[in-house]
Amino acid sequence: MLWVLKALNLKALGYNKWVIHKFEADLCLPPELVIMDISKLEPVVHRWLDYKLMNEGKSARTVDKYAGYLLRLQNYLDKPLLEAERDDLVNFTGLHLHSEGFKPRSRRAVVAAVRGFYAWCLKNQHISQDPARDLEYPKSGQRLPTSMSLSHAEKLLMQPDIATFTGVRDAAILALMMGCGFRMGGITALNDSNLIWYKHQDKDRLAIRVIEKGDKERVIPVPVEAMLLLQAYLGHRELHDIDRLLENGDRVLFVSTGNRLVPACDYRGEERRLSARSIDKFIKRYAEDAGIPNAEAHAHALRHLVGTELAEESATSFEIQSILGHADPKTSQTYIKLAVRKLTDVLDKANPLEKLNTPISPLAKEFKRAL
Asked: In this protein, which residues make up the domain named Tyr recombinase (predicted)?
């Protein structure tokens, strides 16, 4: 059994299916170059991967990538990993990966994995000297995020047909993305138990406990517009006819409506969970229908929109960090914990949905006037 299959098959990690990641988005490489049999990794690498997963708490996806990087190094060397010298590692992370199409930003991740592996080997006395100690990171320019404009966000949110079940579902997902800045992985992993109802100014409000990149958890208040769309989705009669029940008694939040790869008798529970690929497809489809440029037709452009609007409305860097779940490099990934009610006021003031004309806008304004 592949080590990474064993890791990702853990239900506690939230994965019910097992695929070998192809990394196309990160590396821009043909699939045949990146699908690897990591069962051939040396035993010492397996022990390091277990340490990263179990002791350091790295996410399974991150450890999966580490495994792929170390297998590339192992295949490149003509000797065991523990016998590698500094020149071997310099040539591998430099000229070799460059010739395979790795961009500087992607090579930085490989260097980090290689350095981490050999530092661990030295600490655990597998080697007497660390050949990767001074291995340099390739320089890469900082990419400016592509944010969707407010006008395009408004057009996008008007595309789903909210007279249909899938339209209400899609509108609710888009509203959560452009209202809360959730990543796509966080959206797809949501269950009913992630919804937290609370009182704010004597009104029922909703917050969502989301677990995203690096398995980090945060609780984010939901803007009124997104809350109302989500309520419409949860109250839809078609949703009530779908078996969303999971083995632990929870329920999948966002469901798919068709999957030809799953037998009808098994199309329930976890198999009903809407995939990130499905969300990406409908974002691109709606964007094309609305005449929105391809550069903005992705989930992260909506996330960047939230960050941009928060900054425009003078939200502090700490508030932006807390809402978007960013790690602050200046404080070594220290997170500022803000009260949910404080974040509610910030989002109510600055979230993009407040500035858009949407099908739910009149009801949202009436709701706010009653506050």
From this structure: 143-348
- At 371, list the tokens: 């506050």
Side by side, the strands of the sheet bearing 195-200 are 195-200, 203-212, 216-221
Only one residue has tokens 């655990």, namely: 124
pLDDT in tens, 98-148: 888 888 888 999 999 999 999 999 999 999 999 999 999 888 665 656 788
Tens of pLDDT along 70-79?
Answer: 999 999 998 9
149: which DSSP letter? P
b/e for 285-302, b at 16 or more Cβ within 10 A? ebbeebebeeebbbbbbb
Q: Where are the domains of the chain?
A: 3-123, 150-369
The tokens for 152 are 């395009």
Helix, strand and coil percent figures for the chain, each rounded to 5: 55, 10, 35
Quote the pTM value: 0.63
Q: What dihedral angle (degrees, nearest 10) is formed by the CA atoms of 68, 69, 75, 76?
A: 160
- Rounded distance between C-alpha atoms, residue 370 and residue 117, angstroms: 58
Closest CA to 231 of 166, 172, 164: 172
Fold of 150-369: hpI Integrase; Chain A (1.10.443)
Could you tell me if 243 and 265 are in contact, meaning their C-beta atoms sit under 8 angstroms apart?
A: no
Q: What is the CA radius of gyration of the chain?
A: 23
Alpha-carbon gap, residue 337 to 322, rounded angstroms: 7
CA distance 350 to 313: 6
Instruction: Report the interhelical angle of 340-350 vs 299-312 (nearest 10°).
Output: 90
Residue with tokens 């080997």: 121
Q: What residues contact 167, with CB distance under 8 A and at least 6 apart?
A: 160, 161
